[in-house]
Amino acid sequence: MSTDPTSLARLSMSLPAELSRQLDMMVEERGLPSRSQLIAELIRHALAEHEALTRPENMLAGTITLVYRGNRGRVRQQLAETQVDYLKEIISSQHVFLEDDQSLEVLLVQGPATRLKALCDSLRGIRGVHQLQLVTTTALLPPLHELDGLDDASGSKGAVEKEAAA
Questions:
Q1: CA–CA separation, 158 vs 147, rounded Å?
Q2: Which of 14, 89, 92, 105 has the fewest CB within 10 Å, making it most exposed?
Q3: Rounded to 5 degrees, what angle do the CA atoms 41, 88, 42 make?
Q4: Could you give the count of Cα atoms lying within 13 Å of 35 in the half-sphere of its Cβ?
Q5: Tens-place pLDDT, residues 109-165
């Protein structure tokens, strides 16, 4: 998205005085140069959320952040089993232990909006998960692997055939 002044559109808006005051405080607290920058960020976030709701077949990238209690046993096992069902969508995960037998886990995800929603619903259904938030963007990760000349998704058949031919 260009910030070239010739590609910018000017908007005029009216806000209730209190909302305008809160907006100005937020701009100042975040150290942003202008209201416009904050409003553009908020609009981008709303558009990504709208895209996920209205175009469920579109590819999205984002993060799923979850907090859960019960670092041993059943909860972690169920989380792992659920994540295995969504291997194509989960790019990576980061886990850290918190106080009071809690954990924070962040999943980097990419896939169709419907699959990401299904993943979130599955994770929310695990007893012990206290908080879960999906944050998406319409910007995508570049392809992680090129399957050039491979016959199946795992690459095993094509790789074996290439070795045999060599």
A1: 9
A2: 14
A3: 5
A4: 12
A5: 999 999 999 999 999 999 999 999 999 887 888 877 776 655 555 544 444 444 444
Whole-Å CA distances, 25 to 18, 22, 45, 156: 11, 5, 19, 56
* Cα-trace Rg, the chain: 21
3-state class of 57 per DSSP?
coil
Cβ neighbours for 108, distance < 8 A, ≥ 6 positions apart: 61, 62, 63, 90, 91, 92, 93
Q: Report the percentage of the chain scoring pLDDT > 70.
A: 84
Please report, for the chain, the start and end positions of each structural domain, with discontinuous segments joined by +: 16-53, 56-137
Do 62 and 109 contact (CB within 8 A), yes or no? Answer: yes
Contact present, 120 and 134 (Cβ < 8 Å): yes
Tokens for 16, please give them: 């209730």
- Domain 56-137: CATH superfamily is ACT-like. Chain A, domain 2 (3.30.70.1150)
- Rounded Cα gap, residues 119 and 25, in angstroms: 36
